[in-house]
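Q: Hi! New to this. If I give you a protein sequence and the SMILES for zinc ion, can you show me the bound structure?
A: Yes, paste them in.
Q: Okay, here:
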Amino acid sequence: MKVYQRTENGTVTEVSVREALAEVNTAMMEGKRYVREMFSGRGQHSIEYKDGRSVRLVEVYAPREESEPREWHGTHSTFHHLHRMDETNRARCNRRIRANLVPPSGGRGPWGVFKRTRSEIENGESARLYTFCPKCATK
Ligand SMILES: [Zn+2]
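A: Thanks. Here is the predicted structure of the protein with zinc ion bound:
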């Protein structure tokens, strides 16, 4: 999610894209007479107000809200049947079931257990290949 980091005289806050652009538009239009100097670039704006306030707005990506845990992964024998793996990469339904190591996406870096959220998998290109362990789902 895109947001703007707003710095006014050294104080940093986070504002929505809409709020940031509203301030920029106001400074350019009806509030122009209160502005001494203004710079507007790609994802970056700075406004120097005549009252001495200096505002800088920079577009940033807000950290994604992780409401859903990344824990689904397959095993060596049934890589497309996914379990919820705990921190030690063992299935919640049966601790003898272990996650298999897979190559990194893009092929670079070490192999590992790259767990994903259920919605990530269900919304992915290969969603139809996967099934979810019903026992893990209810645990
Ligand atoms: Zn399971």
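A: The longest strand covers residues 54-61. Let me know if you'd like me to explain how to read the tokens.
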